[in-house]
Fold:
Amino acid sequence: MSTSRTVLVTGGNRGIGKAIAEEFIRAGHRVAVTVRSGEGPAGSLSVQADVTNAESLDAAFAEIEEKLGPVEILVANAGITRDTLLMRMSDEDFEDVLNTNLTGSFRVLKRATKGMMKAKFGRVILIGSVVGLLGSAGQVNYSAAKSGLVGMARSLTRELGGRGITANVVAPGFIDTDMTAELSEEVQNQYKAKIPAGRFASPEEVAKVVLWLSSEDAAYISGAVIPVDGGLGMGH
Structure:
């Protein structure tokens, strides 16, 4: 059994975030999840917080630190989409996605790294997307935010790499979640035709990579983009 750590997963009440939280719980870690509404998985500490609001994050961190200890592993997963073609995309559509997906990750990161620096240990895993580097029509806002996470992880690695802190991006492709379930079978088949693996991933397949990246085995990996996309984004 490896060391039990305090883990925070933002947006940990559904989809990939929930699977990640469950994977860390199974591995014996102390897990907190931020939720805007609802509850995280059984065995986690759910804290109400909105990544677009710094005060709510301060309150969330205070509660987590009091009940579970300082955050040692941060998984920045909270995100939204406002998909539409550039010509129809409003400033608000763009700014809302950036504020949650990119600036939201910055706010959580800034708060979490204080304790990590003190402890001289930290794992930061930013949940990106294959479209961050591959691009996607109708997702100028989302892909810009997700590619921004790559620069964030690499700059953080240069700042804090000497203090036992790593920062990496996990870039999932198409995953079996509520979001993909809403697509018609025809559209799902079109996407699967582009994926060398010929299928979508399970959320657990992403979660296991995140768990591994947070372990001692991955202590010398930092500033990397780890694709979990069945080969969809090769070379990007």
Q: What stands out?
A: The helical segments are 15-26, 54-67, 91-119, 131-134, 140-160, 178-181, 185-194, 203-213. The mean pLDDT is 95. The beta strands are 6-10, 30-35, 45-48, 73-76, 122-127, 165-172, 225-228.
